[in-house]
Amino acid sequence: MAFFELFPDGARLLDIGTGNGAVPLIAREIAAQAGRRFEIHGVDRADIDPARFVHATSGALADIHFHGRTSAESLPFRDRHFDGLTGQYALEYTDPASSVRELARVARHGARLRFVLHAEDATPVAGAARNLADIAFLTGELRILDKARALMRAAFAFERANTFDPRLEDAVRKAREDYLAAAHAVDACHPGAGSKTLFSEILGGVRAAWDQRRKFTLDYILTGLDRIEEEIRAHQARLEDMRRAALSREGLAALATLFRETGFNGVRTGELRAPEGTRLLGWELQAALP
């Protein structure tokens, strides 16, 4: 990233909403290529530990300082500390007024800033809308996990009964038909779905639970299905947050005005597009502190 090539040896950099540390890692690699060392910090309101979970060159993340459970609205750094501030799909998730004031506080005179922001019409946000529609289809219209639970309960009642009971057998048959009808609907929609992995994981998870039902208790099987649904709900919440955070052109202009009113100059905004130039990936905002 050309942005980081402009900083001298010893520069102090801060990345907000850093997540898995992708941006700090880029900054470190660029510094190493130029024979420089940066003091790099990454903050995120989540409880993060990139050095533990992210595969990178040995030691690449070791000298980057990560601060989990830290919001951009209340940064734990002294005034005028950083030469560069960045955020990739991060600033729009915060309270902009509070965050921009904090950025102005911790930025040194002459500091440069660059942020990538979600745009309403961008490819990632459009993808989120498709994925949300897929989730609504799976969990709302089809209720596939509810039907999987009903099937497991009916199967356990029939297979573990002390004597043969035709009513329990009929209940299993009906539950199986209901589930298979939903599964066939999922298969039919799979080729055009935006969430192909999600579709596969649900069907695969239910299939594995069915195959292993004689090895475990009903509670164990149902807990596994509940876990699948919890993961879906968490994914749904992240997608909904993205859609809410995405900025219109008017929202981007308002954010640029906020930077100017907070004392930044050279504020520039524009579109960030994929290398082929056809897909909008988001907005870009650059600024400096005089």
Q: Describe it for me?
A:
With 290 residues, this protein is an alpha/beta fold. It has 2 domains: 2-122 and 246-288, Vaccinia Virus protein VP39 (Rossmann fold), CATH 3.40.50.150; 124-242, no CATH class. The protein contains 10 helices and 7 strands. It has helices spanning 2-5, 22-33, 50-53, 96-106, 123-141, 144-159, 166-189, 196-211, 218-245, 249-261, and strands at 12-16, 39-43, 65-67, 82-88, 107-117, 265-273, 280-288. The chain has a 7-stranded mixed beta sheet, sandwiched between helices. Helix 5 packs antiparallel against helix 9, helix 6 (144-159) runs antiparallel to helix 9 (218-245) and helix 8 (196-211) runs antiparallel to helix 9.
Give a brief description.
This protein has 290 residues and is α/β, with parallel strands linked by helices. The protein has helices at residues 2-5, 22-33, 50-53, 96-106, 123-141, 144-159, 166-189, 196-211, 218-245, 249-261, and strands at 12-16, 39-43, 65-67, 82-88, 107-117, 265-273, 280-288. The chain has 2 domains: 2-122 and 246-288, Vaccinia Virus protein VP39 (Rossmann fold), CATH 3.40.50; 124-242, no CATH class.
Which features characterize this protein?
2 domains, alpha/beta, elongated, Rossmann fold, seven-stranded mixed beta sheet, 290 residues
